[in-house]
Specification:
Largest sheet: 7 strands, parallel
Oligomer: single chain
Number of helices: 11
Structural class: alpha/beta
Shape: globular
Number of strands: 12
Distance between the termini: 67 Å
Helix content: 40-55%
Order of helices and strands: HEHEHEHEEHEHEEEHEHEHHEH
Low-confidence stretches: none
Length: about 350
């Protein structure tokens, strides 16, 4: 057989293998009807979008957040759409509250089938404006909270030999982006924990999916924190995160996450731009870092004296951030319960 024919045969076999693998994934996909899904940080933004889409699939929902008014507003919106939803106030930086959350949810529904670790915080600004407290807060919310919620839910999943854990990390957990160092640090830790968790729990029948989104239009910049030249930081962050060429609608992202959950995928990187960045960085980490160092030269600089205080996006609005350039994010702010 000629080399050309052999290569064609190998290609056909590989193609058939991939097709068979995809078929089996869909054949064995999780039916979410009646499943109990706990989503942390679900009163607004991506968490709210995820809860809404899980509800559309017939899942029974447990939502949680620190702000009780926002949480109740989210519960009402989800219930109006026909979802079976339980809202439990919880600060995920407090392990005792996490244990109570899991205990209440389990007492109410009998079990938790799917855990979605979504709660997060964003603090934007140059390194010299960031403090130890900023790093500790990011780690507490986006790493230690994932650890504590996972360990609280895990015993019942191990007993049943089934369950899904979905960890919402970020492309910032694969490529460290300037002016987001506390966020990047916590997300890198979350990616490492999530990937190792999948490897260890596979033999127990528990599937773990690591989700690394790129920029999403969730409306979240209004609640993010900005330091240094906060108005300039907020402007570049919200404009770039609002453009359709660089970001994705949160509902589309939520539906991709749910499909990955049903299929038990190991990893989902959301947006083509994020996939490209992750692959390029994997092949050329030094070049990627040098490019980001060049980009950083164009971002607002600040000394510690210029701004250790932090301001929310809502406090940092400018005529540009209220303009047509951020129209999509303004729409997302209303849709995903940010106000």
């Amino acid at each position: 057989m000629a080399i050309k024919d052999r290569l064609a045969l190998v290609g056909a076999v590989v193609g058939l293998g991939l097709a068979a693998s995809e078929f089996l994934k869909w054949r064995n996909a999780l039916d979410l009807e009646g499943q109990v899904v706990l989503v942390t940080g679900s009163s607004r933004g991506l968490g709210f979008a995820l809860a809404r889409e899980f509800g559309h699939k017939g899942a029974r929902l447990v939502i949680c957040a620190r702000n009780e008014q926002e949480l109740e507003r989210a519960r009402q919106k989800l219930a109006q759409q026909g979802a079976d939803v339980l809202a439990i106030p919880c600060n995920v930086t407090q392990p005792d509250q996490i244990r109570k959350l899991v205990a209440q949810a389990t007492a109410h529904y009998g079990r938790i089938d799917v855990l979605v670790n979504n709660a997060g915080i964003i603090t934007v600004g140059p390194l010299l404006s960031q403090t130890l407290q900023d790093f500790e807060e990011s780690m507490n919310i986006m790493f230690w909270a994932i650890y504590h919620t996972t360990m609280a839910v895990l015993p019942q999943m191990l007993e049943r030999k089934s369950g899904c854990i979905v960890n919402i990390t970020s492309i910032g957990g694969k490529v460290s982006v300037p002016h987001l160092l506390p966020y990047d640090t916590a997300k890198f830790a979350a990616v490492g924990f999530s990937e190792g968790l999948r490897a260890e729990l596979a033999k127990e029948g528990i599937k773990v999916t690591t989700v690394a989104p790129g920029l999403m239009r969730t409306g979240s910049p209004v609640h993010a924190y900005f330091k240094g030249k906060n108005e300039q930081e907020y402007t570049w962050f919200t404009v770039f995160g609002s453009l359709p060429i660089s970001s994705i609608n949160a509902t589309r992202a939520a539906r991709q996450i749910i499909r990955a959950t049903q299929r038990g995928d190991a990893e989902l990187i959301i947006t083509f731009q994020a996939q490209l960045l992750a692959r390029f960085h994997g092949l050329f980490p030094g070049i990627t870092t040098n490019i980001l160092g060049f980009v950083n030269r164009f971002l607002p600089s600040a000394s510690p004296a210029e701004g250790m205080d932090r301001h929310t996006g809502e406090e940092s609005e400018t005529p540009i951030t209220r303009s047509f350039l951020t129209a999509l994010n303004q729409k997302a702010t209303r849709e995903y319960n940010q106000y």
